[in-house]
UniProtKB/TrEMBL annotation:
Cofactor entry: Mg(2+); Zn(2+)
Alphabetic keyword roster: Hydrolase, Magnesium, Metal-binding, NAD
Keyword Iron attributed: no
CDD domains: NUDIX_NADH_pyrophosphatase_Nudt13 (cd03429)
A family per Pfam: NUDIX-like
Lineage top rank: taxon: Bacteria
Keyword check for DNA-binding: no
Reaction catalysis annotation: a 5'-end NAD(+)-phospho-ribonucleoside in mRNA + H2O = a 5'-end phospho-adenosine-phospho-ribonucleoside in mRNA + beta-nicotinamide D-ribonucleotide + 2 H(+)
InterPro entries: NAD-cap_RNA_hydrolase_NudC (IPR050241), NADH_PPase-like_N (IPR015375), NudC-like_C (IPR049734), NUDIX_hydrolase-like_dom_sf (IPR015797), NUDIX_hydrolase_CS (IPR020084), NUDIX_hydrolase_dom (IPR000086), Znr_NADH_PPase (IPR015376)
Entry EC no(s): 3.6.1.22
Family statement drawn from the similarity comment of this UniProt entry: Belongs to the Nudix hydrolase family. NudC subfamily.
Domain Nudix hydrolase: residue ranges: 159-284
Protein name per Swiss-Prot or TrEMBL: NAD(+) diphosphatase
Length: 301
């Protein structure tokens, strides 16, 4: 099964809301839409409150008559505006009502997935962008939260996305190469991934990262799809590639704890068992890795 395609969008790539770029600088229009807008509240851990696997939307009117400092504009759908703010969740981190995207992303509707993914990523960017990269002066949010302007030199900065590749390496037949990091839960395995370096193409990054992590040369690198991964600001760009199964595996010290070739039947069995069998736990359903493995194994999600 050399050729395969993703059978649907990755969980966090789904979105239906119009981001309405033209509205971001229209103060009057934003204020008008604020009064009846839906409000996504994200706590310091990146969690939102869910009710029956749906985002619980607060009321912007509870915050004031116009957009408040720290609020970010997410877009418009069916003439309803959506905003997000940083708020407080419950003190108990195990509360079932508040979940992060890793846990709930695949459960959300297309609309909710897009809203929460944008909210988490945008608010995290603001948290770490309070000072100008050029002169060090404080910055302030402008354009409804989609830019920050330096109060000293006037330089504007925009939300940053760090590209990373994620590659499903297989042998062109019935085996896929999976690996695990030492910090992951026991027996959890996934496909290989790494950040793109300066001056590097995506395809070159695939070749370099696979070589660095498991010592295997790949060929026939092919694009599959992409997914935002706002932890805090990544874009995962998915690929497949071929490798020789008899090539020795040389693991990156302190980064890869174990790697192995896994037969398609084992991957299918793990999916059928809800995501794990003894010796093999699959990546969570919110990740693009989950959808990539399902497509390669020809499992309908």
């Amino acid at each position: 099964m050399t050729d395969f395609v993703l059978d649907g969008l990755p969980a966090l790539s789904r979105s239906t809301v119009d981001r309405a770029d033209a509205a971001r600088g229209d103060v009057e229009l934003l204020a008008k839409g604020w009064k009846e807008a839906g409000l996504v509240v994200i706590d310091e851990r990146g969690r939102a409150r869910l009710v029956d696997d749906a985002l619980h939307l607060g009321r912007t009117s509870d915050l004031g008559e116009a957009p408040v400092d720290g609020a970010v504009f997410l877009g418009v759908q069916d003439e309803v505006a959506y905003w997000a703010v940083r708020g407080s969740g419950p003190e108990d981190p195990g509360s079932g009502d508040w979940q992060d995207l890793r846990m709930c992303g695949a459960l959300l509707s297309d609309t909710d997935a897009g809203l929460m993914t944008a909210a988490v990523g945008l608010l995290a960017w603001h948290d770490h962008s309070n000072f100008c990269a050029r002169c060090g002066s404080p910055t302030k949010a402008v354009r409804a939260g989609w830019a920050r302007r330096c109060t000293g030199c006037g330089h504007e900065e925009y939300p940053r996305t760090d590209p990373a590749v994620i590659c499903l390496v297989h042998d062109g037949d019935a085996h896929v190469l999976l690996a695990r990091q030492p910090v992951w839960p026991a027996e959890r395995y996934s496909v290989l991934a790494g950040f793109v370096e300066v001056g590097e193409s995506l395809e070159a990054c695939v070749e370099r990262e696979v070589g660095e992590e498991v010592g295997v040369a790949v060929r026939s690198v092919r694009y599959l799809g992409s997914q935002p991964w706002p932890f805090p600001r990544s874009l995962m760009v998915g690929f497949s590639a071929l490798a020789d199964r008899d090539a020795p595996l040389v693991l990156a010290e302190d980064e890869i704890e174990h790697a192995k070739w896994v037969h398609r039947d084992e991957v299918r069995a793990a999916f059928a068992a809800g995501g794990a069998i003894p010796g093999l736990g699959l990546p969570g359903a919110s990740s693009i890795a989950h959808r990539m493995l399902a497509a390669w194994a020809n499992v309908q999600l």
